[in-house]
Specification:
Layout (H helix, E strand, L loop, with lengths): L22 H21 L2 H4 L5 E4 L2 E5 L1 E2 L4 E2 L5 E5 L5 H16 L3 H27 L1
Antiparallel strand pairs: 1-2, 2-5, 3-4
Helix pairs in contact: 1-3
Length: 136
Amino acid sequence: MLKLNGSKNPIVRGKKVYQRVNLDTIKSKTVIKIDNLLTSIQSNDINQILKSNMISKVRNGYKIKVGYGNKNEVINDELIGYYDNQEGFAPVVEDLNTIKNAIISGNLDTSFDRLLNSYRERAEKGKGARRVTLVA
Protein backbone atom coordinates (compact mmCIF):
# COMPACT_ATOMS: atom_id res chain seq x y z
CA MET A 1 0.00 0.00 0.00
CA LEU A 2 1.28 3.45 -0.88
CA LYS A 3 1.77 5.95 1.93
CA LEU A 4 1.22 9.48 0.57
CA ASN A 5 1.81 12.71 2.45
CA GLY A 6 -1.32 14.45 1.17
CA SER A 7 -4.55 14.67 3.10
CA LYS A 8 -7.69 12.81 2.03
CA ASN A 9 -9.84 15.74 3.16
CA PRO A 10 -10.08 19.04 1.29
CA ILE A 11 -8.19 21.94 2.82
CA VAL A 12 -10.54 24.70 3.94
CA ARG A 13 -9.33 28.18 4.74
CA GLY A 14 -11.23 31.21 5.83
CA LYS A 15 -11.72 34.30 3.77
CA LYS A 16 -8.61 36.37 3.14
CA VAL A 17 -8.46 39.37 5.44
CA TYR A 18 -8.66 42.64 3.53
CA GLN A 19 -5.68 44.91 4.01
CA ARG A 20 -6.26 48.49 3.03
CA VAL A 21 -3.76 49.84 0.51
CA ASN A 22 -2.22 53.19 1.35
CA LEU A 23 0.24 55.53 -0.31
CA ASP A 24 3.32 54.19 1.48
CA THR A 25 2.46 50.59 0.58
CA ILE A 26 2.07 51.37 -3.10
CA LYS A 27 5.28 53.38 -3.18
CA SER A 28 7.34 50.73 -1.39
CA LYS A 29 6.03 47.88 -3.58
CA THR A 30 6.79 49.87 -6.74
CA VAL A 31 10.33 50.66 -5.55
CA ILE A 32 10.87 46.97 -4.75
CA LYS A 33 9.75 46.00 -8.28
CA ILE A 34 12.13 48.57 -9.77
CA ASP A 35 14.98 47.25 -7.61
CA ASN A 36 14.23 43.68 -8.74
CA LEU A 37 14.29 44.77 -12.37
CA LEU A 38 17.59 46.62 -11.87
CA THR A 39 19.08 43.52 -10.23
CA SER A 40 17.99 41.32 -13.12
CA ILE A 41 19.45 43.81 -15.63
CA GLN A 42 22.78 43.69 -13.78
CA SER A 43 22.73 39.89 -13.95
CA ASN A 44 22.53 40.32 -17.75
CA ASP A 45 20.14 37.37 -18.18
CA ILE A 46 17.54 38.40 -20.76
CA ASN A 47 15.03 35.73 -19.64
CA GLN A 48 15.19 36.99 -16.06
CA ILE A 49 14.83 40.60 -17.24
CA LEU A 50 11.73 39.90 -19.33
CA LYS A 51 9.98 38.16 -16.40
CA SER A 52 9.27 41.60 -14.96
CA ASN A 53 6.00 43.12 -16.09
CA MET A 54 7.65 46.55 -16.22
CA ILE A 55 9.73 45.76 -19.30
CA SER A 56 8.70 44.18 -22.57
CA LYS A 57 10.44 43.47 -25.85
CA VAL A 58 9.23 45.54 -28.77
CA ARG A 59 10.50 45.88 -32.30
CA ASN A 60 14.10 47.12 -32.25
CA GLY A 61 14.20 47.59 -28.50
CA TYR A 62 12.43 47.55 -25.18
CA LYS A 63 9.43 49.26 -23.65
CA ILE A 64 9.52 50.32 -20.01
CA LYS A 65 6.24 50.97 -18.23
CA VAL A 66 6.48 51.67 -14.51
CA GLY A 67 3.20 50.77 -12.90
CA TYR A 68 1.64 49.13 -9.88
CA GLY A 69 0.27 45.68 -9.21
CA ASN A 70 0.14 42.45 -11.15
CA LYS A 71 -1.44 44.22 -14.11
CA ASN A 72 1.20 46.97 -13.96
CA GLU A 73 -1.42 49.73 -13.99
CA VAL A 74 0.00 53.00 -15.25
CA ILE A 75 0.86 55.44 -12.49
CA ASN A 76 1.76 58.30 -14.79
CA ASP A 77 1.96 58.48 -18.59
CA GLU A 78 5.43 60.02 -18.30
CA LEU A 79 6.72 56.72 -16.87
CA ILE A 80 6.46 54.93 -20.22
CA GLY A 81 9.42 54.89 -22.58
CA TYR A 82 10.90 53.08 -25.56
CA TYR A 83 14.61 52.26 -25.71
CA ASP A 84 16.72 51.16 -28.67
CA ASN A 85 18.43 47.83 -28.05
CA GLN A 86 21.58 49.05 -29.83
CA GLU A 87 22.21 51.39 -26.90
CA GLY A 88 22.07 48.52 -24.43
CA PHE A 89 20.49 48.78 -20.99
CA ALA A 90 22.45 51.84 -19.78
CA PRO A 91 19.66 54.37 -20.57
CA VAL A 92 17.07 52.00 -19.08
CA VAL A 93 19.03 51.72 -15.83
CA GLU A 94 19.53 55.48 -15.69
CA ASP A 95 15.82 56.20 -16.18
CA LEU A 96 14.74 53.52 -13.69
CA ASN A 97 17.05 55.03 -11.06
CA THR A 98 15.62 58.49 -11.80
CA ILE A 99 12.05 57.19 -11.43
CA LYS A 100 12.94 55.35 -8.22
CA ASN A 101 14.44 58.51 -6.72
CA ALA A 102 11.37 60.51 -7.76
CA ILE A 103 9.10 57.98 -6.03
CA ILE A 104 11.17 58.01 -2.85
CA SER A 105 11.38 61.82 -2.76
CA GLY A 106 7.60 62.15 -3.20
CA ASN A 107 7.52 63.82 -6.61
CA LEU A 108 4.99 61.27 -7.89
CA ASP A 109 2.66 61.29 -4.86
CA THR A 110 -0.17 62.96 -6.80
CA SER A 111 -0.01 60.21 -9.42
CA PHE A 112 -0.15 57.54 -6.72
CA ASP A 113 -3.09 59.35 -5.09
CA ARG A 114 -4.93 59.30 -8.42
CA LEU A 115 -4.36 55.54 -8.64
CA LEU A 116 -5.63 55.04 -5.08
CA ASN A 117 -8.74 57.08 -5.85
CA SER A 118 -9.43 54.99 -8.95
CA TYR A 119 -9.18 51.85 -6.76
CA ARG A 120 -11.71 53.33 -4.34
CA GLU A 121 -14.08 54.29 -7.16
CA ARG A 122 -13.89 50.79 -8.64
CA ALA A 123 -14.59 49.26 -5.23
CA GLU A 124 -17.66 51.48 -4.81
CA LYS A 125 -18.91 50.50 -8.28
CA GLY A 126 -18.46 46.86 -7.33
CA LYS A 127 -20.42 47.33 -4.12
CA GLY A 128 -23.22 48.99 -6.06
CA ALA A 129 -23.30 46.21 -8.63
CA ARG A 130 -23.46 43.55 -5.91
CA ARG A 131 -26.33 45.38 -4.22
CA VAL A 132 -28.28 45.48 -7.48
CA THR A 133 -27.63 41.78 -8.05
CA LEU A 134 -28.74 40.85 -4.53
CA VAL A 135 -31.95 42.88 -4.77
CA ALA A 136 -32.94 41.45 -8.15
